[in-house]
Each structure stands twice: as structure tokens, then as C-alpha cells.
Amino acid sequence: MRSRYIPLLMTFVVFVALYLIAYSRFSSFGSMRVVGNLLRDNAYWGIAAIGMTFVIISGGIDLSVGSVIAFTGVFCALMIGRNGWDPLATFAVILTIGTLFGATMGFFIHYFKIPAFIVTLSGLFLARGMAYVLSTDSIRIDHPFYKQISDLVYVFPDRGRFTFAAGMFLLILIVGIFLAHFTRFGRNVYALGGNSDAALLLGVPVGRTTILVYALSSFLTVLAGIVLSLSKQSGDSTIAVGLELDVIAAVVIGGTLLTGGVGYVIGTFIAVMTLGTIQTYLTLDGSLTPWWIKIVIGILLFSFVALQKLLSSRKRVQSAKEQLATAPLPS
Amino acid sequence: MRIAKLGLIVLVLLSFSVSFANAQGTGEGLTIGFSQIGSESAWRTSFTEAVLAEAKERGINLLFSDAQQSQENQIAAIRAWLAQGDVDAIILAPVIATGWDDVLKEAADAGVPVVIVDRNVDSDPSLFVTRVSSDFVHEGRLAAAWLVQATSGDCKIVELYGTVGSAAAEDRHKGFMEVIALFSKMQVIHSETGNFVRTEGKAVMQSILSSEDPANICAVFAHNDDMAIGAVEAIKEAGLTPGKDILIVSVDAIPDVFDAMDAGTINATVELSPFMGGPAFDAVAAHLNGEKLPAWIPVAGKLYTSRAAYDADH
Q1: Is residue B99 part of a domain?
Q2: β-bridge mates for residue B156, sequence order
Q3: CB B37 within 8 A of CB B44
Q4: B312: which residues sit within 8 A by CB, 6+ positions away?
Q5: Which positions 44-73 of B are in contact with A (Cβ < 8 Å)?
Q6: pTM here?
Q7: pLDDT tens across B123-156, in order?
Q8: Which chain A residues are closer than 8 Å to B85 by Cβ?
Q9: What is the pLDDT at residue A326?
Q10: Second label for B223, Cα 20 to 30 Å away, from A79, A312, B58, B312?
Q11: Lowest mean pLDDT among A108-117, B165-174, B278-287
Q12: How, if at all, do strands B31-36 and B89-92 pair?
């Protein structure tokens, strides 16, 4: 097996193992109720994590995720709940604002050569600040469209619920896999993260790809905010503080290399489901503190980074050996 | 055959004892999920501990979930309990008022009653059994009543207001004003916000002391202990004796305030009762018995003027 698939395989093994442990203790893990809950409760940050996967594969990072979700929620609540805007029009406006926001961050990262860390940290503060400026209240949204979406649910015979949010999550997953592996944009993102100088030499439009990656991430993050807005039917500027860290952790646990160039959208999805499984297990146990989830994330994160380091150093040694073997002998 | 019969009798007796216990309203044998906001303050931690202790005493199997300040975590926890299907009721301390409609409907569909504790939700009251929470108005009244009695109804008061717009601040103010309005010589001469924060309470008190003749100020009513402790520092720095030259009464009964009472710098505090578990379990048991409950069950705190009195009650 090629070593770049090993982290993905590990992700999958960890997920299956944890799920089986959970199932052996709580029978509901065998029902569509829990599966449906895992999909819908984690949909919003899962969608953002799929965007983040592209950013990290390209060798970057996006710290603005939590703030952009909060800004989206407040914007939707204010415009639809208070000002009576049409929901679809509001979504179109906020998706446009978000995409431009991401593109601007990408623009600064590429053309001003400012580290993505700094640019998106500014984005984090900017978006959070804007959310608070819009409103510090939690605003309720009473709109027939929101009711319709909330009624849009398939109920399984065991009362499991497949909701709009779950559907959106799976749809974005499929679109993400397609974008990453079957488009020129996807190839460019991988090339950029592998080695941006080489990518430039190979004719990859580095500037455009960087801008598109951050635009895509912010677009998906806004979409995540809309999904959350629809399921909570309200908006509030205090939500999703620090969510970007969970999102980054999920991407890495999903087998994406933090240094870029290697990664899988499906891995991110499995990692999100893994963290959701741990959370559900801790809730049902009821006696363990939920802070355990942070500890587990820490352990998993460290294990995956260590695994990647191990694999990449082994690869380096191997390629060095190969080079030695094929190099002409000094005469 | 005999063993089977015996087993049946035991089973019947057991089921009697369980239903009897429920009829008593203790909630014994029930499994209840408790979704708490988090552990952001000393008060919330003692609230959590009080609920856990109460559950243990009553023989309730309590599933505790700390949401780490996130509503999404609270919703996920409730859904997990509903999916597993083994909770008889859910107690929810909501982090925020909005956004509960869907999950409360799901609980109602699953036939699991929900009792709201502490903060409120803006969902339709038909979606939950009742709400158990502190009576902030009562706390304000109690503080005022103590001050009236301590000053024989003659006092010029500085009010350190909590966060403007918060229910705790607005209602404590309301209750306080209701009582002092009954006495012609009781008067609030300054009312400014310190946002429930110690440092802000101190800053506000400093500015008041610099603009007002301290001899004119007879007492401080702080909407929480933290601001009162800040005010104590400001009064000391102005060369006055807090607790003597200026009386201080506040609300919360956090551990620090009793240190201040020992030192004589704070005179009285009204407890923001963390003991909401008992009334919440009572409500669950009564609801499962088919009793009709009021929409709101207030939990009143007591006023304490010394550590000894507080310790005697706890």
C-alpha cells in the first residue's frame, strides 16, 4: 500500500473501533436515530471542515471559521428575523459577502506574502467584531421558510431523522470529493500544497488557486452558518468561539498533512463522525466529564501528526537511498 | 414453579415500591438527563454539585452533560438521550434563550418531559413542563428589607447595577425599588452599572466617591458580590471603613463574600440559590404523576449576615 493512504486508513480504523466500542455499550448506536443525529448535529462544522480540508491541502490555514459562522448567523437572524428580508435573497447576499471575504484573505496571502495564519487571524477578529456590531442579542427567526425546512425531514421506522442539514452535509461531501479529485482546481490545490515553487514552474496558476481556495473555504463556512441558522431558527454572536480549532483538528485526524499536499475530503468526514461519536458516548455515559473529548482530540491529533512525521521521514530516507543507488559513481 | 411464583411476587412488590416512591414525589429510580451550560463560574459549579448531590440522595440515576458554553453541545446531548431512549425526563439549563424549538418538539414527540432551570427559553411554554429559577425580584426586596431594618428606614444609597438589560439586574433593581419606595427617607442617590464585574464595580465606586461627599452615602447595594468586593476596595482607598461608614449589601453569596464578612467589610448578602435540583426533580416527579404545575417555580434565596449563619444552612 502507498504510504500516503496509511493516515486515511488509520482514520477509518479509529472510527470503526470507537463506534463498535460505543455500540457494545449503548444499543442505540445501532439505530438510525444515532446515525441521523451524528449527521445533523455535526453538519454545520463538518461542512466548514470540508472547506478547511482544501485550505490545508493547499498548505494554508483558515482561522476565521468560527467567527464567519457567527457572523452569518447574526446576519441571517437580523435580516430575516428583524428586517423581514426574503431568506433565499439573504442567503445569496451573505454567500456573496463570505466568498468575497475569503477571496480578499487569499489575495493578501498571495500578493502581499503575509502568512495565512496572520491574515485569517485578522479575519477571525474582523468577522467576530462585525457579528457583535450587528447585534449582541440572540435573535429569533420566525419565518415560514424556516418552518418548511425544519419540517423537511425523512423519518426512519426507528424514529431516526434524516434532516435537511444532514442532506446538505452529504451533498457538500460529494461535491468536495469531486472538486478535490476530478477537477483541474483540485489538482492545482494539491500541487500548490506539495511545493508551491514547483507548482509555479509546472504552470499552476498559484495566485488564482490561492484566492479560490480561501474563497471556497469562506463560502462553505457561510453555508455552514446558514445550515446552523436553519436548524436553530435564531442567530447569536457568541456561538462557535474557537470552532476553527476543532475543525483543524478534524482535518488532521482525517489524514490531511498539515504541511499540505496530501489529504482527503472523505477522511475529514470520517474524523467529524469520529468526534461526534465520542461526544455522544460521553453524553450517554453521563458520568464522565465532557472535557474528555478535548483530551481524546489531543491524543488523536498528536498520534496523527506523529504518524505523518514518521511516514514522511521514512519516505525521505527511502528516496535518499534511491538517489544514492541511481546516482553515478564519482570517478 | 414455586421459584417462578416467588419471583413474580418479588417483581410485583418491587414495582409497587417503585411506583410508591414516585407517588411520594422523590423521583427515586428515575433516569434523568441534566444538560448544564458549563462550569464558567464558581456559582455554576456549586449549582451543578448541588444537583448531583440531590440526585444521589434521592436515588435518581442522573446523566450529567457539561455543554462547555455551547448550545450545539446541549442540543446534541438531548438528542443522544432521546435516541438511546432510556431517560424518563430531561432537565435543561439553557445557555441562551433562542433556538430550542426543534429539539424541544423532538422531546415532546418522544414523550420525554423537559424542565427548564435557571435561564429562560423563548419557546412555546407547551413544549416544556415548567421552569425552575431564582426569584431575582425577591432577592432585591430582601436586600432592601435588610437595609431598611439596619438603617431604621433612613439611608441614601448607591446602587451598583449589573449588566443593563439582563434579567438578574433589572429584576433585582425592581424588587429593591419596590421596597424602598415604601419608606420616604430611603433614597437611591446614584445608580451606575458595573456589569457584574469586580474591577468595574471598583471603578464606578471610585468615581462616585470622588464626586459625592462620602458622608452623604449611607449604603451600597450591589447587584452581585463581585461588584460589592470591588466597592469595598474603592471605599478603603478613599480612607473610609467599608461595612461601617458605608454599609454594603449584595447578592450571590459566593465564597469570597464570607471572607469579607469575617473582616467586617460587607454586611449582608442574599444567596442566589444553587439548590434548583430539588424543585426540578419534584417537578419531574409531579409531572409524571399527572399533576398540573405552574409555569414558573421560583427558588428563593435567604439573606445572610455571617459565615456561621450560612454554614449552618449548608
Answers
A1: yes
A2: B187
A3: yes
A4: none
A5: 62-73
A6: 0.84
A7: 999 999 999 999 999 999 999 999 999 999 999 9
A8: 28, 33
A9: 62
A10: B312
A11: B165-174
A12: parallel
First to last CA, chain B: 53
Where residue B157 sits, what CATH number does that domain have? 3.40.50.2300
> Is B12 within a domain?
no
Are A291 and B66 an interchain contact pair (Cβ–Cβ within 8 Å)? yes
Reference B134, options B282, B271, B298; nearest CA is: B298
Phi, psi of B47 (to 5 degrees): -60, -50
Answer yes or no: is pLDDT of A242 > 80.
yes
What was the pLDDT predicted at A63?
98
The structural domain count of chain A equals 1
B219 bridge partner residues = B157, B247
Query: Residue A22 is part of a domain; what is its CATH number?
Result: 1.10.3470
Reduced to 3 states, what is the DSSP secondary structure of residue A194?
Answer: helix
ipTM of the complex: 0.88
Same domain flag for B156 and B258: yes
Cβ count within 10 A of residue A271:
31
Q: Is the separation of the CB atoms in A45 and A228 below 8 Å?
A: no
Total domain count, chain B: 2
State pLDDT tens for residues B214-265: 999 999 999 999 999 999 999 999 999 999 999 999 999 988 999 999 999 9
Asked if B297 contacts B273 with a C-beta cutoff of 8 angstroms, the reply is no
B120 and chain A: CB distance < 8 Å anywhere?
no
